[in-house]
Amino acid sequence: MAETEKRYFALRNPKTGKETGTYMGRSPRQAALKAANRGVKNIHLRERGTFKVHMYTGTRKKVKAPANRPSWMPADIYKPNVKKNGIKKLKKI
Questions:
Q1: Which residues of 35-46 are buried (b: 16+ CB within 10 A; e: fewer)?
Q2: In this structure, which CATH number among 3.10.470, 1.10.10, 3.40.50, 2.40.360 belongs to the domain 7-89?
Q3: In the chain, what are the domain boundaries?
Q4: H or E element: which one contains 78?
Q5: Who has the most CB within 10 Å: 12, 22, 39, 84?
Q6: Residue 34 burial (CB < 10 Å; 0-12/13-18/19+)?
Q7: Distance of CA 45 to the CA centre of its chain
């Protein structure tokens, strides 16, 4: 069974359309979780090479780290959560 390829998603500003960052993941949700973990709340991700924009609402919550955490991990960590709001198709980039 072939492993699925990682894909690149550009973080877009929903008002200006300017792309400010790139997140990598196998699915748009995985990339959205990475953006949410960095504090982005209104997440619009355009998959590179396509005109589809995946729209998410992101939050993050501070929780206790697991008991079996490595020594370098802090006692409190952020746990991201995203909710998909839909897909929008662009006419051009």
A1: bbbeebeebbbb
A2: 3.10.470
A3: 7-89
A4: strand 76-89
A5: 12
A6: buried
A7: 7
Predicted TM-score (pTM) of the model is 0.88
Q: Are 58 and 44 in contact (CB under 8 A)?
A: no
Residue-level pLDDT, tens digit, the chain, 93 residues: 456 789 999 999 989 989 999 999 999 999 999 999 999 999 999 999 999 999 999 999 999 999 999 999 999 999 999 999 999 999 876
Which pair of structure tokens corresponds to residue 70?
């490595």
